[in-house]
Specification:
Layout (H helix, E strand, L loop, with lengths): L1 H32 L2 E7 L6 H12 L16 H6 L6 E9 L2 E9 L7 H9 L3 E7 L6 H12 L3 E7 L8 H12 L7 E2 L8 H11 L12 E10 L3 E10 L1 E3 L3 E4 L5 E3 L2 E5 L3 E4 L1 E3 L3 E5 L13 E4 L18 E7 L5 H14 L4 E7 L3 E8 L2 H15 L3 E3 L6 E5 L6 E4 L11 E16 L3 H10 L3 E7 L4 E9 H4 L3 H8 L5 E12 L1 E8 L2 E2 L5 E4 L3 H15 L7 E7 L2 E8 L15 H21 L6 H4 L8
Length: about 625
């Protein structure tokens, strides 16, 4: 009986000790998570996000004086040359406040509308956001768009009024604009200058005080969100993740839920300026993972990582799927490079998840890919990155959007038209629907007339006009997406002298009177130059394309007719005159019949050459349609 009582008291003591240890571990875990802050910086393009990130890194000592440089997180040559952020960049900082050490995980995001998908991915991994507004330019369209994206994800917003040191700054008026937009107090807005370092300490204090610590449980199966990835030619795919619940350990067997594949965590660590390997990364923290994956398609951004032996099957919600806005064909110059181009595109897709592509073939260009982009700048950047990073020289076809075609006998069946060659025969066609967008343009009141004229020219219909202040107006238009994919943004900046800002969101498909305009070179159709155009604009665009091609295509030994056609009807024609060789130069005299004989011989040769000759089309001719209004 005594032995039994002793055993019972020993078990009770052991249980109490385990209980106390588990409470202690839980308290320690809560204390650790209370000292983590995950935040991103959102703003319109050129409002000072990257410079502000530089100052935060300087102030927290995350970079040494040797490593210091402007646009530190923009590590691509393209980003530095253009002065824009193309990729989101994650970095960890450490900051001490009142004796407590805090871990700050910052994600610097792009500001251009074409890279908004990068912003949505960053927002999914954060609890708070710094909303940066330029004191000279005030609130722009992309500022509002990114703000709504952050509010949908329940992020804590810290408004920052940047560039207050500029002579053209108008802090009082812009502060009122921010108060009206957010409904906050003027005292909540932090005046700052990322260039001089003014207000950086206030921003860091606000991050600690206002942004909530991450929520998550450490004692449950692993659940982590993949928010980015990059291809390393030596180590395979590097995956960037945020641990929501549980913890990930070095050497642990893990599983990707979307693909169902299992791997070993060969290396994990945190993302400082250089990668710092760790043995364990717990709930609430951000890090990188290397598993030796060589196949790019095995990693999907937005996927959930869990334990292989004790999986958490719940997928992390709230991740936005990419919606391509502009479609164009990308083909290798040499058809033998097709497989190499595929491998390059897959590696690039890891680094830029908003790139979508499927294989397609063209009679003129051979095998290539139909690619979906978020906008014209995105297309330009992808083309340049393929050339710089992968040494791939490519041909890009005329960009267009995706249409829905309906046949007469099968009026319920949708035929997806991503390429003009996919359009059914007009005799079987019932109707064509094209995507429309809701465009939001913010401009100065003096440029309203110019902006309205441009939008009406692009088949836009005004739906709303709001005066935000006496100087600034917001205009809303319903417009066809096809009209804005080419030169709309550039022309908008021109007519408003650079003051207008532009943002858009899709609103669905609407019926439209569209025709297919073919370009014929030497009587042969070039499908890469075909375009679906509204019937009212078909003649003028066909004429301009013929004139542009006449300038761009080099002259040959024979006449080259350039024709624009709708079906069998030719609507415009230009001719590139032949390079004429003077075959009669050797005839110094004698009968005229000698010269005539040589000219007749030349004429026959030119006729034969025209029948068998092929016309080389330079790359800039495929993009000629973009410059029609120059």
């Amino acid at each position: 009986m005594l032995i039994f009582t002793l055993k019972l008291s020993f078990i009770t003591q052991t249980k109490n000790q385990v209980f106390k240890i588990s409470i202690f571990v839980l308290e320690e875990e809560n204390a650790r998570m209370n000292h983590i802050r995950n935040f991103c910086i959102i703003a319109h393009i050129d409002h000072g996000k990257s410079t502000l990130a530089d100052r935060l890194l300087d102030y927290t000592g995350a970079v040494s004086s040797r490593e210091k440089q402007d646009q530190l997180l923009d590590n691509m040559d393209l980003e530095r040359e253009r002065g824009i952020t193309i990729k989101s960049h994650a970095i960890q900082m450490e900051y001490e406040n009142q004796g407590d050490k805090y871990v700050l995980n910052l994600i610097d995001t792009p500001g251009h509308v074409d890279f908004s998908y990068e912003v949505s991915r960053s927002i999914a991994a954060c609890e708070g956001a710094l909303l940066v507004v330029d004191a000279a330019q005030s609130i722009q369209a992309q500022t509002i768009s990114n703000l709504y994206l952050a509010l949908e994800n329940d992020l804590e917003i810290i408004p920052v009024l940047n560039k207050v040191d500029l002579p053209s700054a108008n802090p009082e008026e812009v502060t009122d604009d921010i108060v009206n937009l957010l409904g906050c107090n003027a005292a909540d807005i932090i005046p700052a200058s990322a260039k001089t370092g003014l207000g950086i300490e206030d921003i860091l204090l606000a991050i600690i005080e206002r942004i909530p610590p991450p929520k998550g449980k450490a004692n449950v199966p692993l659940q982590a969100l993949i928010f980015d990835s990059v291809y390393n030619p030596f180590r395979g795919v590097e995956t960037y993740f945020r641990v929501v619940n549980g913890e990930i350990r070095k050497g642990q067997k893990i599983q990707f839920i979307a693909t169902g594949k299992t791997y070993f965590a060969d290396e994990i660590g945190t993302l400082k300026l250089k990668q710092v390997p760790k043995n364990v990364i717990c709930a609430g923290d951000v890090g990188y993972l290397i598993t030796g994956i060589k196949e790019a398609k095995e990693v999907k951004v937005g996927d959930t990582i869990t334990e292989a032996d004790n999986p958490n099957q719940q997928i992390i919600e709230g991740f936005e799927e990419v919606k391509p806005m502009v479609f164009a064909g990308i083909y290798p110059v040499d058809t033998e490079d097709y497989e190499e181009l595929r491998a390059s595109m897959e590696k690039l897709q890891l680094n830029d998840a908003s790139l979508v592509f499927v294989p397609e073939s063209s009679a003129a260009l051979g095998f290539g890919f139909r690619c979906g982009f978020l906008g014209m700048l995105h297309l330009e950047i992808i083309q340049e990155r393929l050339e710089r990073e992968f040494n791939m020289t490519v041909i890009t076809t005329v960009p267009n959007v995706s249409y829905h075609a309906y046949k007469k006998k099968h009026s319920d069946e949708i035929v997806m038209v991503n390429n003009p060659s996919d359009l059914p025969d007009p005799s079987f066609l019932d109707r064509v629907e094209e995507p429309f967008i809701k465009a939001s343009i913010i401009t100065k009141s003096e440029y309203v007339g110019n902006v309205m004229s441009l939008c009406i020219e692009k088949r836009g219909q005004i739906t709303n006009q709001t005066y935000l202040t006496t100087e600034r107006v917001e205009l809303n238009f319903d417009m066809p997406l096809a009209e804005i994919v080419f030169d709309f943004y550039d022309r908008l900046k021109t007519v408003s002298k650079g003051y207008a800002s532009f943002d858009y969101s899709p609103i669905g498909m609407r019926p439209s009177k569209l025709v297919k305009v073919d370009i014929l070179l030497n009587s042969n159709p070039v499908d890469a130059l075909s375009a679906l155009i509204h019937a009212d604009n078909a003649y003028s665009i066909g004429k301009k394309m013929c004139e542009k091609l006449r300038e761009l295509i080099p002259r040959q030994q024979f006449d080259i007719p350039i024709q624009a056609a709708i079906g069998a009807k030719i609507i415009s024609r230009e001719t590139i005159k032949a390079l004429r060789k003077d075959v009669t130069a050797k005839c110094y005299g004698g009968d005229i019949t000698r010269k005539r004989k040589l000219l007749e011989k030349q004429k026959k040769g030119k006729k034969k050459m025209r029948q068998v000759g092929s016309v080389e089309i330079p790359q800039q001719a495929f993009m000629a349609v973009l410059k029609l209004n120059d």
